[in-house]
Amino acid sequence: MALRKSYPDLLTLYLLLLLSHVIVASGYGYGPNPNTEMPRNIEKEKFFPRVFSVQGVVYCKSASKVLPLKGGVMRITCLGIDKYGYETAPFSKLSRPTDANGYFLTKLSSQLLRDVGGLNITHCNAFLHTSRHKICPFATDFNRGLSGAPLSAYRTLGSTDMRLYSIGPFIYGSNPPQF
Fold first, then answer.
1. For residues 157 and 151, what is the distance between their CA atoms, to the nearest angstrom?
2. How many other CB atoms are found less than 10 A from the CB of residue 141?
């Protein structure tokens, strides 16, 4: 009879021990989790300036002809780190449609990101976004137009700290890309 009364107590104790092992093994509880990424050292990072611009040219390739594409839109996607050193989710800005020469110029500002959220931009990539041209509707990966061209080469404009990044050229084609 005494064994029957202690059996539920032993089962409860066993389940509690099993549950505590599951909680510890899953990373919940106290102590550092070895699977989490440590924040980056903000002082060692190189950030984009408060205001910068991106320029480039987009072309249409149909058969053997390569012509400037009017109406192409680029997407500039950036990543940053917050004031605690953690990487942010990506955020993007679309360019205005390219002109008759296929040229685009986009101005970006990280001023509001820094002032409100303490965010700093660490790197950006440019992507082909859309084409309004019916003959060349397909983005190609020429100069990493599909996979993302990193913004790296720049020149400083005038006496300001304004940077102008030049990327591309990029190409839309008349045939879908083959992978």
1. 16
2. 15
- pTM (2 decimals)? 0.70
DSSP readout, 14-66? HHHHHHHHHHHHTT-SSS--TTSPPPP-GGG-----SEEEEEEEEEEEETTEE
pLDDT of residue 32: 47
59 vs 28: CA distance, rounded Å: 53
Q: Which residue has the tokens 């032993």?
A: 10
pLDDT for residue 41: 52
Cis peptide bond N-terminal to 169, omega within 30: yes
Helices (H), 64-143: 111-112
**Position with higher pLDDT, 139 vs 51:** 139
- Write down the mean pLDDT value for the chain: 79
How far apart are alpha carbons 84 and 69 in whole angstroms?
Answer: 43
pLDDT at 53 over 50: yes
How far is residue 59 from each of residues 36, 41, 85, 129, 138, measured CA to CA in Å? 44, 41, 39, 13, 11
